Every structure is written in C-alpha cells, then in structure tokens.
Amino acid sequence: MSLTPAPASTDVFDLGAEHEQVVFAHDPASGLRAIVAIHSTALGPALGGTRFHPYPTTAAALSDVLDLARGMTYKAALAGLDLGGGKAVIVGDPGVDKSEALLRAYGRFVESLGGRYRTACDVGTYSDDMDVVARESRFVTGRTVAHGGAGDSSVLTAFGVFRGLLAAAEAAWGSPSLDGRVVGVSGVGKVGRHLVGHLVEAGARVVVSDVATAAVDRVRDEHPDVTAASSTDALVAGDLDVYAPCALGHAITDEVAETLSARVVCGAANNQLAHPGVEKTLADRGIVYAPDYCVNAGGLIQVADELEGFSFERAQQRAARIYDTTRDVLALAASDAVSPALAADRLAERRIRDVGRLRGIWLPA
C-alpha cells in the first residue's frame, strides 16, 4: 500500500484548511484509491462512513470527502456524542470495482491511522462490507448483527429524520402531525424507503421519485397507496407540504428553492443546500428548513452505540431526541433571527468549545 501525493499544483492546505488531517491511499494490486478526511477530533476520535462512488475526478472526490467530514463533526457534536468528524471515500463503481481484496486493503489503511478515524457504512457500502474491512482493522463499526454489530444504520437514520420532521411540522403548522400532509421523498434507497414507512404510518400522503425504477417499485409493493412521480423534477414541481431529499447532496438549488411549493424541507441527504445563499431564499419564502446534519444523525447514533455494545432500544431512545434537538435549533433560529443552519452550527460549536479536549486533537491511548 502506498500514499499518493497530491499534484504539485494543488495547495492541499488551502483545500482542507479546517481539517486536521487528509490522507490519500493507493493500493495498485487491489485497485484501491481512497481518501480519508479527519475534520476534528476535539470531542473524540473521528467517526464517519465510507462512501464508494464513481467520482469523475480526484478533485471531485476530495471536495466531497472534505464537505462530508466537516458535516460529521457538527453532526456528532449536535447529537451529543463524544466523537469527532471524519469521512472516507473510495473512488470507483461499487457494482464493478468492489472486491474482498480492495476492502481488506482499505481495512489495513484504516488500521494504519491508529483509531483516529473509525469507519462505517455510507452510500455504496453495507454492513457485510464492514465485516470484510474489520478483518484487517479494529476500528470498524456498522457491522452485521451476526458479527455483534448494529446492522443497517439506515433504520435509525430514517427514524431520526422522521422525528426531526415532526419538529419541523410543529414549527410550520403548530402541531407535530403529518396526518393528511403531502410529503415528497426523492430517493427511496436505504434511508428513503424506511422513511416512507414512518410517513405512511403517520397518515401522510407520500409521493416518491428515484433514478432506480426498482427502488420505486419496491416501495410501492410495500405501500400500495404511495404514488410515484415521473422524475425528481416533477416531484419538486408538484403540490407538496413537505419535501424530503434523501438522495445525494446539493438537492436544494436556487431553482428548487424559488419554485418549491412545500412549507417544510427535511430529508436525509447530506449537504442539501447547493450553496449557503439558498437557505435565505427558503426563509424569505416562509419555508422551514430542518438542517440535514441535525435530523439525519440517527445512523451515526446507531453505529456510535455499537462502540459500547449495541442496544437497539438505547440507540432508538437517543435517536428520538432528534425531535428535541430540531426544536432547539428552530427556536434558536427564530430568537436570534438567523437561519436554521447557522443556529445548528452555533449549538454544535458551543458544545465543541465547552467540552472539547484542551489538547485539540485526539491521540490513541
């Protein structure tokens, strides 16, 4: 395994100016090309999933992992966890390039970081994959139940988003109820599918979209009353009370923010805002935005609980508190006349400042 230096023309210190550590890994024999970004370990070792995605360029992969790692720091802090923020990306098509050799090479790389970064599942990786990674590293969570793990973290991710959505509904309509509300869910993969179940049970009328027809078909087989939009654009253009983006990031563009009929935006996707100014458009139009890293922390809570011996009931109770956290964020936004994203940042930064380790970075014992 070798480390791949960044091109001489790239100032990596500028690219990752906020981050403690960014490391590139390359194992030619298995085809592994990976990047791990550790944003902060002020509250503890960095925990974040491994995303396996066919990025068009290394620059695109680096940009994504830096954004995602920063989000994990704030997510862990806001969720009350004694963990820092990190993320990893593996460059490639998981349907073609994933192999035991590659995952084990990645596991050796994670192990070499000595516990400063602890990995789990993300887009393109699953609990079974983490079992393979764990054959080479002690610093793996999100494993299968058969191997003592928590299993699929999307279960509590969806539950947490649902709890956050109830708080956002209360802010928008005065009651934490979704009965009769029209909710559009874009992306019904691992998390979106579970979220649909919660929404149907709560009495919402659900419309879904996904680039994968099979994912839509599976949801409609499970919930026959769910309807499908012809595309995400058609979904966004429809008559909605709630828009829940649950696919990849940057779903809330200027165009979406200006045309969306929904009164609430609350979904599982990371980095939903295409740029910071989009949130002002949402606020100006009276749309309640529940910050993504606030409401989608259930999966992180689930895999973090695994580190102390997993209890689903305990993890679910912790994830249920996302309702209270979201209420606090929206209340602070209203009282300070700032955006919900800025309010969430302030609460997370306050905790990092108040209880973060004085030495600044986490080192293995």
UniProtKB/TrEMBL annotation:
Keywords: NAD, Oxidoreductase
Source taxon at top rank: Bacteria
Pfam families on file: ELFV_dehydrog (PF00208), ELFV_dehydrog_N (PF02812)
The keyword Cell membrane belongs to this UniProt entry's keyword annotation: no
InterPro entries: Aminoacid_DH-like_N_sf (IPR046346), Glu/Leu/Phe/Val/Trp_DH (IPR006095), Glu/Leu/Phe/Val/Trp_DH_C (IPR006096), Glu/Leu/Phe/Val/Trp_DH_dimer (IPR006097), Glu/Leu/Phe/Val_DH_AS (IPR033524), Glu/Phe/Leu/Val/Trp_DH_bac/arc (IPR016211), NAD(P)-bd_dom_sf (IPR036291)
SMART domains recorded: ELFV_dehydrog (SM00839)
Domain Glutamate/phenylalanine/leucine/valine/L-tryptophan dehydrogenase C-terminal intervals: 151-360
Coiled coil: none
Keyword Isomerase listed: no
Membership in a protein family: Belongs to the Glu/Leu/Phe/Val dehydrogenases family.
The protein's name in its UniProt record: Glu/Leu/Phe/Val dehydrogenase dimerization domain-containing protein
Organism name: Nocardioides marinquilinus
Taxonomic path: Bacteria, Bacillati, Actinomycetota, Actinomycetes, Propionibacteriales
